[in-house]
Amino acid sequence: MLPADRSTTTLSKSGTNRPGSSFGTETPIQYVKGVGPKLGALLTSRGISTVSELLHFFPRQYEDRTKMAQVVNLREGEKATVSLRVIDLKRIPIRKLGRSILEVRCTDDSGLLSLKWFHVPKGMDARFKPGTQFVATGSVKVYLGKKEIIHPEISWGVTSSSDIEAGHPHVGRVIPIYTEIEGIPTRFLRKILWEAIEKFGAGLTEDIPSRFLAAHQLPTLAHSIREIHFPTGNGEDIQKLLEFATAYHHRLIYEEFFKFEYLILKQRLKMERSLAPTFGDQTGTHALQELEAVLPFQLTRDQKSAIQDISADLSQPHPMNRLIQGDVGSGKTAVAFLTAGLVLAQGGQVALMAPTEILAEQHHRNALKLFGIKLNIGLLTGKTSASDRALILGRLISGEPLLLIGTHALIEDPVQFKNLCYIIIDEQHRFGVEQRRTLRKKGTHLDPVSGRLLLPHNLALSATPIPRTLALTAYGDLSQTLIKELPPGRSPIQTKVVRTKSDQGLSYQLIRKELTQGHQAYFIFPLVNDSEAEGFTELKSAVAEAERLSTEVFPEFKVGLLHGQMRPEDKAKVMSDYLSKKLHILVSTTVVEVGVDVPNATIMAIVHAERFGLSQLHQLRGRVGRGKSQSYCFLFTHQNTGETTTQRLEVLEETTDGFKIAEADLEMRGPGEFLGTRQAGSLPFHLANIVRDRDWLLKARDDAYALLREDPDLIRSENISLKCYFSREGQTQFERLKTS
Ligand code: ADP
Ligand code: MG
User: Fold this and answer.
1) Which residues line ligand 1 (CB under 6 A)?
2) From the CA of 517, how far away is ligand 1's center (Å)?
3) Distance CA 321, CA 458 (A)
């Protein structure tokens, strides 16, 4: 992505954000003076096809040309801008090269300066008639005692400070430096931008109601765009400009957040106004109490309050859209089961969708173990036999209150519910928007009494704690419940980043000791999809490592291998062997990442830990420490791992707080990690960065909310421009994100 690549490297890798698509100046780029069809086509091919997009192509650097230097004061190595007059010019032939150097001798009346070109642009000689005045910029050299600049940048037609005051793109100011687009020098881009701002800058529509701008003392859009390209300051703000920290940048950042938050909050309000079946009567409460009574443990306080949140939502005639975030092992599934029981008891059907077969089966097993016949449960996965399947489909269509646990198999066409009222999605970030929407459609039905459309209630579970800024943006359409507290009796996992061979030796000793005591270990490899080119196929490594561990390192123990490319039945076999302790070590790719529950495992060894994000490592680590024994996590890193990466990993040695880790991860890696397949890793922000600009996000959100309350249909005159913007742009940016 071209424009403003400095600010967005951590935000969007996709390049799908059309710069400036949110601003009104949709005039084609060809209408800018100096841009013909050829240049227009080139710019268009690089994502700049309208004036607005051009105006949002921001400088990569700035250079201070506010002060003209005096030739007499120039020093070797200095970068300087000087106002000059031509004395004479000559060609110095270089026979070896078969061409000549152009030397132009100039003065500013304080001293002599030579300008030299080794490659002489066409027509150059003719422009330097003796007496001609111009401004030159470049690095000063001293050659044989004489000052010179090689290949200076020349600005014609400016000679005096009055010319400069009249406005000039290249001298007498802090000038912008743009990322060069093939064949278009930055000087030329600067010129085009200057023309575009002159002609179109004032015409930029102001979408943000002026009272919000005034409240935050923010400048107008037109003013901001001009200042970002051609700052009027005297160079003191260059650093701030580069950091997107000027009021002008804040103005643009605020606007991006404001529009986004407005749409997402509006969507949320709309959802909150649509209808859903209610589950608020006594039967449900009784069922909850009964189910809780059969649990072999006490619910934690956080689990209880999560259940309260959900019951309150379910008792309302509007669809719940709630996300429960809680670390692995915090007991989210128990919350899901209990609340499912509440709905079943009142005659509704419930679907629980998990991203893998292993996980779906485990949920099914656990539900049976915890509640026995007290919950009416079914299982539907790709493995379910045709006859079992037919049976289940029959039960669904009969309207029998059933909690159906399953994989993607749940969203296949033939699966039809009579009365699906409550949808639970485990590890929701592993599903795409479409998949969730499909399941939701299966739960949308006409209310036989009122004849109105009823939507199902939705609960999403996430084991990756989501930083607050992301919760407000990517997940802004969901209500949130946090489960921070882990069930009692779990001792914190000891974590160690392992770099050296000798540390590795020590780690193996400890692992051997644990295995000897009858515990089990995981060895995890990064999932590498498409890096065959790097010569690092994950499969080969896992296979090779399984081999090495079983023959060389731990020959006395049994090693199993699990990876995503195995047949489901083989996977299940390995998993069940591991569960029943026939295998001591499980070498695996990240397929075990989600939810797998083997309390006897006390070792999590992650190989090539440097290739994972912190949150993912944290999640993997959560596979151990599920029983009473002390557990350990080893993060084996490649010996070439850099200092910053190592420091990053050390966060895991220091804390087990998933929210802290998530914040650290967001700061270091950007939001892609958390969003996953949700929308391929990018928020629709061009300039704004949810980490850096967090304060503006909060302000914009408050304002958007205020606006929605005061003028929901944007009919007041001061909001008309915003209304036009939304009707013009539709909800395209938002469509890519929202959950429904
Ligand atoms: P999550 O889905 O949040 O990772 P689970 O719901 O799978 O966690 O719970 C992990 C394990 O802890 C399960 O074996 C579950 O039965 C158990 N568990 C859940 N809640 C409690 C609790 N309050 N006390 C003790 N154990 C619990
Ligand atoms: Mg879980």
Assistant:
1) 297-300, 303, 326, 328-334, 463, 487, 595, 597
2) 25
3) 5
The answer on pLDDT for 529 being more than 60 is: no
pLDDT at 17: 34
What is the identity of the amino acid at 336?
A
The residue ranking higher by pLDDT, 527 or 133, is: 133
Q: Round to whole Å and give the CA distance between 456 and 39.
A: 53
DSSP 512: H
Q: Pairing mode, if any, of strands 146-150 and 133-143?
A: antiparallel
- Ligand 1 geometric centre to CA of 306 (Å): 14
The structure tokens 């944290």 sit at 618
Identify the residue whose C-alpha is closest to ligand 1 atom 20: 331
Please give the distance, rounded to the nearest whole angstrom, from the Cα atom of residue 563 to the centre of ligand 1.
25
What token pair was written down for 730?
A: 């539709």
Distance of CA 354 to the CA centre of its chain: 23
Question: Looking at the predicted structure, is the pLDDT value of residue 512 above 50?
Answer: yes
Length of the chain: 740
Q: Is pLDDT above 60 for 375?
A: yes
* Interatomic CA distance for residues 686 and 31, integer angstroms: 24
Distance between Cα 193 and ligand 1 center (Å): 59
Strands (E), 76-190: 79-94, 99-107, 112-117, 133-143, 146-150, 153-156, 174-177
Structure-token match 């489901």, residue found? 568
Q: Give the 3-state DSSP-derived string for 226-238, with helices as H, strands as E and coil as C.
A: HHHHCCCCCCCCH
| Cα–Cα distance, 223 to 597 (Å, whole number) | 58
Nearest Cα residue to 698 out of 215, 212, 254 = 254
Q: Name residues whose C-beta falls within 8 Å of residue 733's C-beta, 6 or more positions apart in sequence.
A: 21, 22, 259, 260, 263, 684
Q: Give the pLDDT band (50/70/90) at residue 317.
A: very high
The ligand 1 atom nearest the CA atom of 426: 2
Q: Where are the alpha helices (DSSP H) in 430-500?
A: 433-442, 468-472
Helices (H), 61-127: 124-127
Residues 6+ away with beta carbon under 8 Å from 515:
521, 554, 557, 584, 585, 603
| Residue 21 pLDDT > 50 | no
CA 190, CA 175: separation in Å to the nearest integer? 8
Residue 159 has pLDDT above 60, yes or no: no
Higher pLDDT, 465 or 86: 86
Written as one letter, the residue type at 46 is R
Residue 464 pLDDT > 80:
no
Q: Which residue has the tokens 């199993």?
A: 560
Spatial contact of 187 and 155, defined as CB atoms under 8 Å apart = no
Rounded CA-CA distance 252/56 in Å is 10
Separation between Cα atoms, residue 553 and residue 624, nearest integer Å: 21
Angle between helices 357-371 and 568-579 (to 10 degrees): 50
User: Residue 292 Cα, ligand 2 centroid: separation in angstroms?
Assistant: 19
Which ligand sits closest to the CA of 300?
1
Beta carbons within 8 Å of 15's beta carbon, 6+ residues apart: 1, 47
Positions of E strands within 474-524: 479-483, 494-498, 520-524
Give the model's pLDDT for residue 30: 85
Among 291, 327, 333, the mutation site with the greatest number of ligand 1 atoms within 8 A of its Cβ is: 333
Name the maximum alpha-carbon separation found in the chain.
Answer: 101
Task: Between 672 and 332, name the one with better pLDDT.
Answer: 332
Residues, Cβ < 5 Å to ion ligand 2:
595
Q: Mean pLDDT lowest for which of 236-250, 476-490, 682-696, 725-739?
A: 725-739
Strands 146-150 and 632-636, bridge-based pairing:
unpaired
Distance in angstroms (rounded) separating the CA atoms of residues 548 and 560: 12
